[in-house]
Specification:
Blueprint: H1 2-18, E1 31-37, E2 42-50, E3 56-64, H2 67-80, H3 85-101, H4 112-118, H5 128-145, E4 150-152
Parallel strand pairs: 1-4
Antiparallel strand pairs: 1-2, 2-3
Helix pairs in contact: 1-2, 2-5, 3-5
Protein name: SUF system NifU family Fe-S cluster assembly protein
GO molecular function, one term: iron-sulfur cluster binding
Family: Belongs to the NifU family.
């Protein structure tokens, strides 16, 4: 069963890496930030469109990077839509823990569905050099939400 799960996770990552969702420029974005991983060359620009209540109405990205970086950005843009800035920050922190350790004991039930969706990227913890690839989009999300223009995985 473990091998089947690993195969499924690899398929999810490959699918999002080859056909990323929300890979486009948002012309009417309220917030944007550039992310850079100088160690491997992953780069992205994240765009956020906020709803009147401050929640994330739309999220998109452009850039170039490895399959893990692209899949993470793709999954992230799908997952944060409809979230408040606070929820998005909490999700980013929990994802970082998932990517670094493979688990997220503090995830609780409030974002359990979202974390389950991100579970395919949990395997990067076995490859420390790839953790920065997986977390780049999330660092960039935090930067955009905070009004910063740039983020780095360093």
């Amino acid at each position: 069963m473990f091998d089947d799960l690993r195969d499924l996770y690899q398929e999810v990552i490959l699918d999002h890496g080859r056909k990323p969702r929300n890979f486009r420029r948002l012309e009417d974005a309220d917030r944007s930030a550039r992310g850079d991983n100088p160690m491997c060359g992953d780069r992205l620009e994240l765009y956020l469109k906020l709803a009147p209540d401050g929640s994330i109405a739309d999220a998109a990205f452009q850039g170039r990077g490895c399959a893990i970086s692209t899949a993470s950005a793709s999954l992230m843009t799908e997952t944060v839509k409809g979230k408040s800035a606070g929820q998005a920050h909490a999700l980013a922190e929990r994802f970082r823990e998932l990517a670094m350790t493979g688990t997220c004991p503090d995830c609780g039930t409030d974002l359990a569905e979202e974390m389950e969706r991100l579970q395919p990227l949990s395997g990067v913890h076995e490859f420390p050099s790839r953790v920065k690839c997986a977390t780049l989009a999330w660092h960039t999300l935090n930067a955009a939400l905070e009004g910063a223009k740039e983020a780095s995985s360093e």
